[in-house]
Design a protein that fits this description.
The protein is mainly alpha-helical. Helix content is 57%, strand content 9%. The protein has helices spanning 6-13, 17-24, 28-35, 44-54, 58-61, and strands at 2-4, 62-64. Strands 1-2 form a two-stranded antiparallel ribbon. Helix 2 packs across helix 3. The chain is globular and about 40 Å long.
Amino acid sequence: MIRIMLYDLAHRKKVRITDISRQTGLSRTTLTAINQEDAKGINFNTLDTLCRYFGCQPGDLLRYEEDTK
């Protein structure tokens, strides 16, 4: 399972989803879906924007975990 680490990165930077949305131009709806892991996928442009915003690599935003089911 792929886990999205947006919450952790936002927490470290001490920003909220609303702040990220305002500063990046990404919609709050998209960011909330990604943050709550409701998104079915993530667009490469969105991933690029988030990496640029956080100054990170895609691997810092995405993490693979074994499915325990």
